[in-house]
Amino acid sequence: MKPITRRQFHGALAASAVALQLKSARAEVGPNDRIRVGAIGYGSRGTGNLAEFLNNPEVDIPVVCEVDETRLAKAVAHVEKQSGKKPDAVSDFRKVIERNDLDAILVSTPDHWHALPTVFACQTGKDVYVEKPLARTVDEGRAILEATRQHQRVVQMGTQWRSGQHHKDAVAYVQSGKLGTIRAVRGWSYKTWNITTHPDGPAPAGVDYDMWLGPCPERPFNPNRFHSNFRWYWDYAGGLMTDLGVHVINLCQWATGPENPSRIISTSSNQVMGDAIETPDTQTALYEFPTYTLTWEHQLQGTIGPHKGQSGACFSGSNGSLIVSQSGWEVIPDRAADGAIEAEEHPALPDGRPAHIRNFLDCMGSRELPVSNPEVGHHVTALAHLGSIACRTKSTVIWDPETERITNDAEADALVGANYREPWKLPYSRRG
Question: Which class is 6-162+353-373 in CATH?
Fold first, then answer.
């Protein structure tokens, strides 16, 4: 399977994208139809996603799913209060997937539960909005992409920066060529997150902990590894590199084009969090692309990053630099460029999530590719995972995008796959 091309990558973003002849879950969703969405997961992202979906008047949420009874009750109350309709409540996501009265599935789970609900939903003829990162491993992302293609589904990854207007404007400026030759791109995220160590113990009452673990290794319950803290443990996620890193790398690749790196190296440490987490609290990754280098850096407990932006990117060209973050974007001319460009400053515009969800819903009707479809999502999520793999193995990663294998290090290549605990199996896996 060939890697995504620049034309495919940018074509997926265009408002005038050629409509795909895709099947819909029931009859094709028309402009006056109700859209029935089953919601899986009700953490911080699930809460916001549920609210935003229900802000669209044609959306109904007839069923919600959570393995934590406390969160499940909150999800039911949320939907009933916002929509006036009480949804069904289940703790096993398969009971959502098997329903034949749903058009789409909303997946707002921890990363290790992104792939299977998305793939199963595609297999049963449903469209999917799944939170970022697309998957916990590269092979899981490939499985989602293959399921989307084979079952002709509309799938959107929840990277709402893709739909944020000030991010669009900054990307358009980079793509205009005004910055001149871009030879260095820098992305970062500096995040405050207080994590302390806790002993193992029993799972909270009302939590189906075995289902929460799902395909991951069986381990004693520990609150550090549960709910929002899951992202700091390799079993379930990839730390800040595959969390905010997917947003930022997505932005960088959107602006420069979807090139594949020739090699990736990374250095990291746990200077602050220590044994409280497994993923690094401090990391730098360097990607060598054919025409430029991309540097990623992050810190936990470091609220202000480069250029006073918590998460953002800087594109350095021969005429000057463009810096974009959640706070807006600015252009800084190079003094040696003899007035080739002028300084500019642009404030942040409203959150892109409403437009991102609206794009997904519109594409359900038009059958066009949404802006963060799996062709895009798999590419950028894989890049983030490769940075984590280089970090974990302390090796230089040489990546073959055709076979999706790391060719120079067997230990590193093994981390591309997804080893599932019985009885779970990943359809469309390249690694078996």
Answer: alpha beta
